[in-house]
Amino acid sequence: MRRNIRGTLVMVAAVAALGMSYRAVRAQERTRTVWDGVYTEAQAKRGLPLYNEHCLDCHGDDLEGDAETPPLRGGQFLTNWDGQKLGDLYTRIRRDMPLNSEAGKLSPTVVADLVAYVLSINRFPPGDKELPHAPEVLNEIRFESQRPAAKR
Fold first, then answer.
1. CA distance 118 to 12
2. 99-110, pLDDT tens digit by residue?
3. Which helix (H) or strand (E) holds 141?
4. What is the pTM assigned to this prediction?
5. CB of 73 within 8 A of CB of 63?
6. pLDDT of 22-78, one tens digit each?
7. DSSP secondary-structure letter at 150?
8. Peptide bond into 98 cis (omega under 30)
9. Which of 3, 11, 93, 95 lies 20 to 30 Å from 21 when distance is taken between CA atoms?
10. Cβ(91)–Cβ(135) under 8 Å?
């Protein structure tokens, strides 16, 4: 009788482990990244004049920032955001930018267009759907500085 219980427990543990492994693999398959075309060209184009209006004074013409302002393009920017959720970048801009009396006053749509512009400047590919302005949706998109290996 004890052997049957022990055998059953081992079987249950094995099935549970397989189920967890399967869920982990499925979650990885569903993970979207900024390389999956998460914004449109039109949205990025709308972001340019918004950048000029709200961001240019601090981040500059080339989005490189300065000694006091972090860049929005290039190696340091990519390293700073690598592996994070795109929703974190969106929330940082929405909550804290621009660094003046207007901080936190940009509309969700403006922030989404600004993020699309920044993605385009950093040469992430556009897609056929606009970047949403819902942080919970953007949290499902990973910011990856390097293009992931092709999925098989």
1. 49
2. 888 889 999 999
3. strand 141-142
4. 0.79
5. yes
6. 444 344 446 899 999 999 999 999 999 999 999 999 999 999 999 899 999 999 999
7. P
8. yes
9. 3
10. yes
Of residues 30, 43, 53, 27, the one with CA closest to residue 132: 43
Supply 36's token pair.
């999956």
CA gyration radius for the chain?
21
Quote the CA–CA distance of 105 and 37 in Å, as a whole number: 27
Residue type, 90: Y
Q: How many residues does the chain have?
A: 152
The whole-angstrom separation of Cα 145 and Cα 104 is 27
Locate 26 and state its tokens.
């499925």
Q: Is pLDDT above 70 for 94?
A: yes
